[in-house]
Amino acid sequence: MAASCVALLALSLFLPLVLMSVWKRWCRERTARHVIVVVLGDVGRSPRMQYHALSLAKHGFSVTFLGFCNSKPHDEVLRNNRIRIVPLTELQRFTVGPHILQYGIKVVFQAVHLLWKLMCREPAAYIFLQNPPGLPAIAVCWFVGCLCGSKLVIDWHNYGYSIMGLVHGPSHCLVLLAKWYEKLFGRLAHLHLCVTNAMQEDLAENWGIKAVTVYDKPASFFKEMPLDLQHRLFMKLGHTYSAFRTSSEPSDLATERSAFTEWDAGSRMVTRKGPLKDYYSRLIGQKHFQHIQVCTPWLQAEDYPLLLGSADLGVSLHKSSSGLDLPMKVVDMFGCCLPACAVNFQCLRVGGSGVGLWMGTTGFWSPGRSQAFLDSLCSLHELVKHGENGLVFEDSEELAAQLQMLLSKFPDPAGKLNQFRKNLRESEQLRWDESWMQTVLPLLMDT
């Protein structure tokens, strides 16, 4: 009797899935230009997957974008009539029971919820999945692909188990289980993309996965901004953040002034005035800076490229759990011809202080830096060319020295900061869609 009940329950659960899969395979030929993009995270904070969706839509695919809708995606995604965003429900964390039980409940809920959302969509030729987070998304997307005849494409941004290891430690049972799961199901995809050559090599050597490197590239809206757009942005931000407001009002009522720009209504010119969250805000408040203002704004998606295109120098504090990914924010900065100082997220594996090294043709003297230092940068050197388009630093003291050097002659065109900016302007930078056409599109056609 009990066995019959179990069999009946299993049949009632799987029969709808089987029937839906038969129907979706029958309909698949009519919707071969449909792609599902899955992010088990916030869509608005997944720029690379947004770019995938935009490129797919531009090349004739209809796109269903599944993810959490906690922040606003870019306007180009929202305006595109070929892209439909389908929100996933984010399960709030339980506070009852042991942590492993809470995590297990969350995984089961996400698996069932994602399975239902995917099966309710029209048939797709491809399922694009961001990893991490890949638990339970990889297994669910692979299972749906088997049922419906969709091909799974995994875009490896990092490893999920290595991120979990930062919290629980590398030998924790959850971390080991996540690594086994990621390695097992990760191999089942039809196509693998990754963000660096270092990750490509690691996937091949340690996971038996053959991936194609698709570097992050800036979208077309990341560019240097003209002064009138800079002024409008600074005035807009000034309504909310005091750091963007002028310290003294202009005497001429026809002049509009921000902390960085002035607008003369008579001549209709904009000119530069020259150099002028909780946890970190408290730390910043304790510093008592005399000549520095620190602002931590929450920008709308469309204002972010405007602000980068209006800035003079970028700083990246991105660190990697695996050492195999790249700071995408630096990619955006370079798209705006904005030089960057980036923290080295790989520990030095050499002893001693090294020797001074003359870096390339830019004439930048890097004291205490040997060739071994450059070799130790791992994936970071695939993006930041130390002394050419930016600088790499180890600690706060080195960053302070770099900032002092870069800004010492600002805004003199002969200063080091402007030399870096000139190098970025003169370099041939592919934009995302151009790179996507050369790498991803041919792979899809061959898969």
Automatic annotation (TrEMBL):
<keyword id="KW-0732">Signal</keyword>
<protein>
    <submittedName>
        <fullName>Chitobiosyldiphosphodolichol beta-mannosyltransferase</fullName>
    </submittedName>
</protein>
<comment type="pathway">
    <text>Protein modification; protein glycosylation.</text>
</comment>
<dbReference type="GO" id="GO:0005789">
    <property type="term" value="C:endoplasmic reticulum membrane"/>
</dbReference>
<feature type="domain" description="Glycosyltransferase subfamily 4-like N-terminal">
    <location>
        <begin position="50"/>
        <end position="212"/>
    </location>
</feature>
<dbReference type="GO" id="GO:0000030">
    <property type="term" value="F:mannosyltransferase activity"/>
</dbReference>
<dbReference type="Pfam" id="PF13579">
    <property type="entry name" value="Glyco_trans_4_4"/>
</dbReference>
<keyword id="KW-0812">Transmembrane</keyword>
<keyword id="KW-0472">Membrane</keyword>
<feature type="signal peptide">
    <location>
        <begin position="1"/>
        <end position="20"/>
    </location>
</feature>
<dbReference type="InterPro" id="IPR026051">
    <property type="entry name" value="ALG1-like"/>
</dbReference>
<keyword id="KW-0328">Glycosyltransferase</keyword>
<keyword id="KW-0256">Endoplasmic reticulum</keyword>
<keyword id="KW-0808">Transferase</keyword>
<dbReference type="InterPro" id="IPR028098">
    <property type="entry name" value="Glyco_trans_4-like_N"/>
</dbReference>
<keyword id="KW-1133">Transmembrane helix</keyword>
